[in-house]
Amino acid sequence: MMDGQERMFRRLVQNIRSGFPDLLTRPFEVSAIHQHLVPYRLNRGELGLDSAEEYELTLMRLLSGAGGMLEGDPDMQAALRTELESPNPDLSLFRAWGTSTVSVSLAAVRALEVQTPVAVRNPSPGAPTRQAEIAGRATLELPTSQVTATMMASTQLATPPDSMPAAAGVPQAPHVHGTGCRYCGGELPDGREAHFCPHCGQNLSVKQCPACSTELEAEWQFCITCGRQGE
């Protein structure tokens, strides 16, 4: 039976093929996985994980090099393995290595194709996955370090000019009349406050901690992971 780490790796390969096919053959930043490639809120059903804590534990195992699925910084992988072996591991430790790079093991991809050949093939052009529709808008020709910056810049362009600046480029409140979805750019209903985008389904009422990127409700004043006060 496929475990959580194998499901996460399979989902990562699927989403890379759909939105960023060049990342199959070159390194990308650790932060890109949980922020754009396999974010928990968009993939929890496919991952079969019941909580954000279980997601973070599974991601730490994947990043640690377990199973040989991801190749990365030896120091990072050693630190994550050590933390995972502790009685009460800090599940947010991988965020400290957000700018480190990892790459997909092509041997692991080939093994995955043998096990589930249909699941990892490219979707047909007429039926892109929801993840590709949201994440695949980044320019694929950009260097890996600019992928996140491109996505955040598109978010800032969707922010109403009269709203308060958001921490890390993420708006702090739901969109209202006259604005577009900060994720897909789709038009939002006129004269109504929108908490979810009717086009891509993204939650527009959440924000991210500027220190550790944990998702926070718009009305929260402090981060539930690191305790930092919101901006």
Description of the molecule:
The structure is a single chain. This protein is 37% helix and 6% strand. The chain has 231 residues and is mainly alpha-helical. It folds into two domains: 4-134, no CATH class; 158-231, no CATH class. The strands form two sheets. Strands 1-3-2 form a three-stranded antiparallel beta sheet. A hairpin with a 6-residue loop joins β4 (206-208) and β5. The model is unreliable at 117-178 (pLDDT under 50).
Order of helices and strands: HEHHHEHEHHHEE
Number of beta strands: 5
The domain tally reads: 2
> What structural class do you assign from the helix and strand content?
mainly alpha
Biggest beta sheet attributes: 3 strands, antiparallel
Mean pLDDT: 74
Low-confidence stretches: 117-178
Radius of gyration: 18 Å
Task: Give the proportion of residues in helices.
Answer: 25-40%
Main-sheet strand order equals 1-3-2
Helix run count? 8
Could you give the topology of this structure?
Blueprint: H1 4-19, E1 28-29, H2 30-37, H3 40-47, H4 52-63, E2 70-72, H5 74-84, E3 101-104, H6 106-115, H7 130-135, H8 144-157, E4 206-208, E5 215-217
Antiparallel strand pairs: 1-3, 2-3, 4-5
Helix pairs in contact: 1-4, 4-5
Quick take:
With 231 residues, the chain is mainly alpha-helical.
